[in-house]
Amino acid sequence: MIHIHADFDEATNTVTYLVEDTATKQAALIDPVLDYEPHRAALQTHSIDRILEDIRSRGLTLTWVLDTHAHADHLSAASYVREQTGARIGIGAKITEVQKLFRPVFNATDVCPNGTVFDALFEHGDEIPFGSTVIKVLHTPGHTPACVTYLIEEAAFVGDTLFMPDYGTARADFPGGDARTLYRSIQKILQLPPETRIFVGHDYLPETRNAVAWESTVAEQLASNIHLQDRDEDAFVSMREARDETLKAPRLILPSLQVNIRAGALPPPESDGHTYLKLPVNRI
């Protein structure tokens, strides 16, 4: 049996999940966030430190820190968590495609586009031992080539592929993204049993709702996801591509991507001993 604790980061609208296998007290952390204030390029660890303290106080052993994809809206705390706990970092195997896409954008010559900065690269169908249970991996690309869903017992952690039913689905206009691929990935998720719990990666609180939320079910998504109702594949692609044309780039896309292709680590220090995040002009 698993226990799930959700931590909502207001600055990035991101949900970090702490999943505990109650039989063994092993834990996995999904999509952890570093605090980053872009106007001062100020990096802090207050949010993730609070979660790590909760892990310690509850006597849990953190074995995995898992990212659902290379996020473009927040900096991953995966590398910091590994340093603090020894937990292994896992991500979808197609992260190598994302590294190849963005290595030249940031002239990130230290990045080897082979995924070795991560401890484990997961393929579709992989089963990862986790305490008394397993974590099953579904490759669910479309938002990015590397997106995966982590299925733990009756809970599916879908990252950005789906949002709450009243908000819809992920954008598919990032490099390597594709609306038709996204639709097919969503169908993989919706073929899970109807009672499967869906845990989303973000909530942006639409005007029709007054409290953030992050959990639904397959049945609820099928019945009421606003982007999927009465739409076949072609209609979904047309809707998604038209909507994506109206969206701005995420506020933290530039710092996030150059950190997250490094598994949440900062670029190496330059000759003056300082670390710099780059602003590649007209590259995104």
List the domain count as a whole number: 1
Helix segment tally: 7
Roughly how many Å is the radius of gyration? 18 Å
CATH class: Alpha Beta
- Please give the alpha-carbon distance between the first and last residues: 43 Å
Report the structural category.
alpha/beta
Task: Produce the secondary structure layout.
Layout: E1 2-9, E2 14-21, E3 26-30, E4 33-37, E5 42-44, H1 46-57, E6 61-66, E7 75-76, H2 78-85, E8 88-92, H3 95-102, E9 120-122, E10 127-130, E11 133-139, E12 148-152, E13 155-159, H4 179-190, E14 197-200, E15 215-217, H5 218-224, H6 233-244, H7 253-260
Parallel strand pairs: 3-6, 6-8, 8-9, 13-14
Antiparallel strand pairs: 1-2, 2-3, 4-5, 4-7, 10-11, 11-12, 12-13, 14-15
Descriptive report:
There is one protein chain. The protein has 284 residues and is of the alpha/beta class. It has one domain (2-260): Metallo-beta-lactamase, Chain A (4-Layer Sandwich). The chain has helices at 46-57, 78-85, 95-102, 179-190, 218-224, 233-244, 253-260; strands at residues 2-9, 14-21, 26-30, 33-37, 42-44, 61-66, 75-76, 88-92, 120-122, 127-130, 133-139, 148-152, 155-159, 197-200, 215-217. Strand 12 (148-152) and strand 13 form a beta hairpin.
Summarize the structure.
Helix content is 24%, strand content 26%. It has 284 residues and is of the alpha/beta class. The chain has one domain (2-260): Metallo-beta-lactamase, Chain A (4-Layer Sandwich).
